[in-house]
Amino acid sequence: MSEQAKETTIFQIADQFIALANELSSKEQDVGKVGTALRFAAARFNAFEASLKSADLKAEKNNALEWFSKEYHDMLNDNLDDHIDNPPVVQTEPVQDDAVKVFKG
What we know:
The protein contains four helices and no strands. By secondary structure, the chain is mainly α. It is globular and about 45 Å long.
């Protein structure tokens, strides 16, 4: 097996985060709370990533914000389209949480 075939893909790593998020959502009974925590964790880790990749983060901050925001926007857009085309089998009522925005049509 080649080294490339052995390498963990971003999708495999993402699946591990999603499995943990699903476990926490079940435990907390609050998908919104877990989603907010996951976004915060992603923002914190992405800021760390940017700081490691930047020679002058203060000067490059706006470029980093633009790049990470576009990446997230594109990924979220693709996944929203996937859920539109393949809705979840079991839908539950959104949990009311003042700290989390609930989207209504």
